[in-house]
Design a protein that fits this description.
Elements (H helix, E strand, L loop, with lengths): L1 H23 L15 H5 L4 H11 L4 H8 L21 H12 L6 E2 L12 H8 L2 H4 L11 H18 L3 E2 L6 H18 L6 E5 L4 H14 L2 E5 L11 E8 L10 H9 L3 E7 L16 E5 L15 E5 L11 E6 L5 E7 L20 H39 L12 E4 L6 H10 L2 E2 L8 E4 L6 H12 L8 H5 L27 H12 L22 H4 L5 H4 L11 H18 L11 H18 L18 H7 L21 H4 L5
Parallel strand pairs: 1-12, 3-4, 3-5, 5-6, 6-7
Antiparallel strand pairs: 2-8, 7-8, 9-10, 11-13
Helix pairs in contact: 5-19, 6-12, 6-16, 8-12, 9-10, 12-14, 13-14
């Protein structure tokens, strides 16, 4: 891979130099005269030819090839030709964008009523234009240096305050990677709390009505950590044995049911277990928050607060907990402090999970956040305020109730229990696939369940006409029509046991910026307190977005990409699948490997997934005894990742990836053992 990288660097440098020479000569050079005038490397590779010569002279080399020869041993150098893209043309940014637009056109964007943690939403234009599409917000580096990060730190504190208020728990972090990963982190946090209390419990309950992707991720993490994950119906969970250190519940459930979990959580806590609740922020503007019915941890996604679905991400997950568990919580926490002059200032108050701080003592390998998306979600709450958010939620709930009432009038079974945005229908007289096909012909995706029932989830973008069209899909050709507005008027209030009582989001920041001009000024006020590529070069290497050119960012907000649900039928995502396939093929070519997965959404998750893949391979070959992993001293690896994977037996209270003895040994003696 190193050699391939060297080849790419030399090609970029040659292309860049030729392009610069042509422009500097006023078009006199004919080498690239017919190339596009807006080639990517000409605009985005910073050093000019003179800069390159000066740097090479300082290093004592005549050329980039000479520098490569000195830096890379010949026996690891790639000498072939990379097969990436169309080698016969040198396209400009406009041409590439046109090609990407054609690929995006292969996606078919229907109204997805699939739910399961992903919902269409309205991104306020003032937020899209001035945050998501603004390099002052998407190019700054991680806010480790507080004095040049005050704007983002304040925006992230808004996010934390929003999450804490809505979940009813006093402490929230500055975002996590996604809801499923956050749920897995909650399981690890429950285990860490139990271990601190000298508990020997090794099992964790997962409610069977959690989102399917959440169940899958939590079970995989549990397998790696030696935890017994038990998927069960909430009503059948039994904590009397003392084997369970925690439980994960979904509120509302993935099929829309709303349940009062207070009694179950009380039983769990009486047995020494901790309760984590995966929840929905918009629903919590109407529903009793998890903190009020005993939850110790709340997790979820803030996606529907103004962040497009984007075929599954990225989105900012959240986690909130009780103050006494602050040191067990993964990720970062922004806190309020004072500067040298005594003025209010913000800083990263707790980031104990980071590999550069706790290292092998860390209980999580999370070392990043979805800062840009968390900022958007926090600003969405600032823009709408508590009243606006509650109005959006109430509208969604009333439309959902009206839809359920209308479907019942067609003779289908819909549970009478209250719902927020999702219902599950058992058709009578019509096969489920006929109804689903009818809805799709009207432009709606409805999910089907294995038992023949159908799910429907509504959202902020749902209109009265949408509900009427969905009702027609269940009508089977019935001629009578129902008035959605009249049905909505008949929806009863939420039961007392489930309804939220008391105010939320009372801080002035959520009650001051409700006009576009006010929000615009607030956004730019914060941006002016940060350092980004709009002001300066940032001389740090990282995987943040600062290296993306504007032409690469533009497609993010195209509706063909932004509004596609991750569980939409595959034939509606042909453009996405083609783009992902191309990227995987190119990365595999560069890496010299037969295949590449782009699923992990951060370096920490990629490292962990890689270790699990290696373990899985050896297990499939009947070589589970191979349980030693070598990590060179020069490798800057997330220390918490290998702490999970490689440990001395008995060093921690839980079994990790390899149940037998695990160790670090010197590379020169390792391979002879066959371990």
């Amino acid at each position: 891979m190193t050699g391939a990288t060297g080849q790419i660097q030399r090609k970029i440098s040659d292309d860049y130099a030729a392009n610069r020479d042509f422009h500097q000569a006023g078009g006199a050079s004919l080498k690239n005269a017919l190339d596009a005038s807006d080639t990517f490397q000409g605009r985005h590779i910073g050093p000019r030819c003179g800069d390159i010569r000066q740097m090479l002279q300082s290093l004592g080399h005549e050329s980039l090839d000479a520098l490569t020869d000195a830096a890379l041993p010949a026996d690891i150098r790639f000498t072939g030709t990379l097969k990436i893209g169309d080698e016969g043309s040198r396209r400009g940014e406009a041409q590439v964008l046109a090609e990407l637009k054609r690929i995006a056109g292969e996606n078919q964007v229907l109204r997805s009523c699939i739910g399961r943690g992903y919902y269409d939403c309205i991104t306020p234009p003032v937020i899209q234009r001035n945050i998501l599409e603004n390099p002052a917000w998407y190019t700054p580096y991680t806010p480790y240096q507080a004095e040049i990060s005050q704007g983002r730190l304040e925006a992230l504190l808004n996010f934390q305050t929003m999450v804490a208020d809505l979940t009813g728990l006093p402490l929230a972090n500055a975002s996590l990677l996604d809801e499923a990963t956050a749920a897995a982190e909650a399981m690890g946090m429950c285990q860490a709390i139990a271990a601190g209390e000298n508990s020997t419990a090794d099992s964790f309950y997962i409610a069977d009505d959690c989102h399917p992707q959440t169940i899958a991720v939590v079970r995989t993490r549990a397998l790696a950590l030696g935890i017994k994950a038990v998927v069960a119906k909430p009503a059948e969970m039994d904590f009397a044995s003392g084997e369970f250190f925690g439980v994960l519940l979904q509120y509302p459930a993935t099929d829309g049911r709303l349940q009062d979990h207070s009694e179950l959580i009380a039983r769990a806590k009486a047995a020494g277990a901790r309760a984590a609740v995966a929840t929905d922020l918009l629903a919590l503007t109407l529903l009793k928050p998890p903190g009020e019915f005993g939850a110790d941890i709340a997790v979820g996604s803030s996606q529907r607060f103004g962040v497009p679905m984007g075929f599954g991400g990225p989105h900012a997950a959240f986690m909130a907990t009780r103050t006494e568990y602050a040191r067990k919580m993964p990720g970062r926490i922004v806190g309020v402090s004072k500067d040298a002059a005594g003025h209010v200032a913000y800083r990263l108050a707790i980031q104990t999970r980071e590999q550069h701080i706790r290292r092998d003592k860390a209980t999580s390998n999370i070392c990043t956040a979805q800062a840009l998306l968390a900022v958007m979600a926090g600003m969405y709450a600032c823009y709408h305020g508590p009243r606006g958010l509650k109005r959006i939620a109430q509208r969604v709930r009333l439309l959902t109730g009206a839809l359920a009432s209308g479907i019942r009038r067609f003779g289908h079974d819909v549970p009478e229990e209250c719902a927020f945005d999702t219902i599950r229908v058992r058709p009578n007289g019509l096969p489920a696939d006929v109804i689903i096909d009818s809805a799709r012909s009207r432009g709606f995706n409805l999910p089907g369940f294995e038992d023949g029932s159908i799910g429907i989830s509504l959202d902020e973008t749902t209109a009265l006409a949408d509900v009427e069209a969905i009702l027609e899909s269940f009508g089977g050709g019935a001629t009578f029509r129902v008035r959605v507005d009249q049905l909505a008027e008949q929806i009863p209030p939420l039961p007392e046991a489930l309804a939220r009582r008391g105010e939320f989001l009372q801080h002035p920041v959520f009650n001051s910026y409700h006009s576009e001009t006010e929000m615009l000024r607030y956004i730019f006020h914060l941006a002016g307190r940060d350092l980004s590529l709009a002001q300066s070069m940032i001389p740090l290497g990282s995987c943040t977005m600062k290296l993306n050119g504007t032409s690469e960012m533009l497609p993010v907000t195209w509706p063909e990409f932004a509004r596609l649900h991750p569980f939409a039928p595959a034939d509606q995502a042909r453009g996405y699948l083609k783009m992902i396939g191309q990227l995987e093929a190119w990365l595999a070519e560069i890496a010299g490997l037969p295949a590449v997965s782009v699923q992990p959404n951060s370096g920490s998750q990629g490292e962990f997934a890689g270790l699990l893949a290696i373990l899985g391979y050896f297990s499939s070959q009947g070589q589970s005894h191979r349980n030693v992993c070598l990590i060179p001293v020069s490798r800057v690896m997330n220390r918490a990742t290998w702490t999970w994977a490689i440990c001395e037996p008995g060093r921690r209270s839980t079994r990790l990836i390899w149940p037998a003895s695990c160790s670090l040994i010197h590379p020169r003696t390792a391979f002879s053992s066959g371990a």
